[in-house]
Write a structure and sequence with these properties.
2 copies of one chain form a homodimer.
Chain A (H helix, E strand, L loop, with lengths): L3 H10 L7 H13 L1 H18 L1 E2 L6 E2 L5 H4 L7 E5 L2 H10 L5 E4 L17 H10 L4 E4 L5 H14 L4 E4 L15 H9 L5
Parallel strand pairs in A: 3-4, 3-5, 5-6
Antiparallel strand pairs in A: 1-2
Helix pairs in contact in A: 1-2
Chain lengths: ~200, ~200
């Protein structure tokens, strides 16, 4: 149907999350049509990232230096640590652009089913950082899922009395319509209601 | 939020059809995690395709040789030509694996709105091939859209009396349920009904 090199590329592209065989074929034809504008720059960018990407030794963020820009920045507030499950969550927090402290990426959540315990995540590292970086507040920004909340409770137990512990507020999303919200969110928003 | 190299890769990935900024970020994090297994092979495969991919000078298929495997194959039936809009349509026909002749890729459809005329497509080339390759049957496998059918009629006018002209049958798709089909398809299937 086409040559080996193109088939190989289609097979590899189909392994990306969100792409299947059909969209991989479509993407590859698009790439071949835009060879100079997209295919070559993309190949170069991938090669570059394959060589330079690394995990921050301190927080687990992904970047191109041993210590990431956020950990290395002197503009970041000392003493505040935001704990997230994954690098994508850290990036989402950074896009909001309101948190000025530093991060700690757990690398997942505790899960009895998948036998993921505290030592499989970077929880011991987190406990070390509390002392070594004189952390006074830990914000648990874990996903509002069962596993995320279990992990938050476990970490809260470990850090109790040592730091101020907070978590993200639960409630109606900005722009959200009540009619489209689930009962759990509405009930959380009601019980956390605020004076106007 | 992350380093320049990674941002560049995310921006380029977001230009692929079917991927937006969010899925591009997800794909790039996935790639970084599977560096040896996916990122490096993918970069290599892209580099390879960027160098080797070319359009078949005869039919317009995409491959790695000046004359594609299908045009060059001696096992293909001479005299039969299947006309398709796009390379992806040619690949779809090949996956079905039933057509044993050769192809001709138009590279689009006639469109008065976008001022695409016959000379913008490879229609003159198609007419040349009818003579030079002694074609006796042309199968118009164009999409069942208004533009596709307009193009099919135009080509049919040009080739009338010179070759046998056929088009793909219209009707109920295999596995299809009447309840889910549009009226046009049902009416086409009814008027083309066959004796059992």
């Amino acid at each position: 149907m086409s040559s080996n090199e193109i088939d190989t590329l289609i097979e590899l592209m189909a392994k990306l999350p969100g792409l299947g065989p059909r969209s991989a074929r479509r993407a590859v034809l698009h790439l071949i049509r835009k060879r100079a504008l997209l295919l070559t720059p993309l190949a170069d960018a991938m090669q570059e990232v394959a060589v330079t990407a690394r995990e921050c030794l301190n927080c687990g963020n992904v970047g191109t230096t041993d210590i990431c820009e956020i950990c290395a920045s002197e503009k970041r507030a000392n003493g505040e640590l935001c704990v997230v499950e994954d690098v994508s969550d850290l990036w989402a927090m950074e896009r909001a652009g309101v948190f000025k402290g530093r991060y700690h990426v757990l690398g997942g959540t505790l899960s009895a089913l998948d036998s993921i315990g505290p030592e499989d995540l970077s929880i011991p590292k987190l406990i070390d950082r509390i002392t070594s970086e004189n952390i006074t507040e830990v914000i648990l920004a874990l996903n509002a899922t069962v596993d995320g909340q279990t992990t938050a409770h476990y970490i809260a137990d470990q850090l109790e009395d040592r730091v101020r512990l907070t978590s993200l507020a639960q409630g109606v999303p900005v722009g959200g319509e009540l009619d489209y919200l689930d009962e759990g969110t509405i009930s959380a928003a009601l019980s956390a209601r605020r004076a106007l």
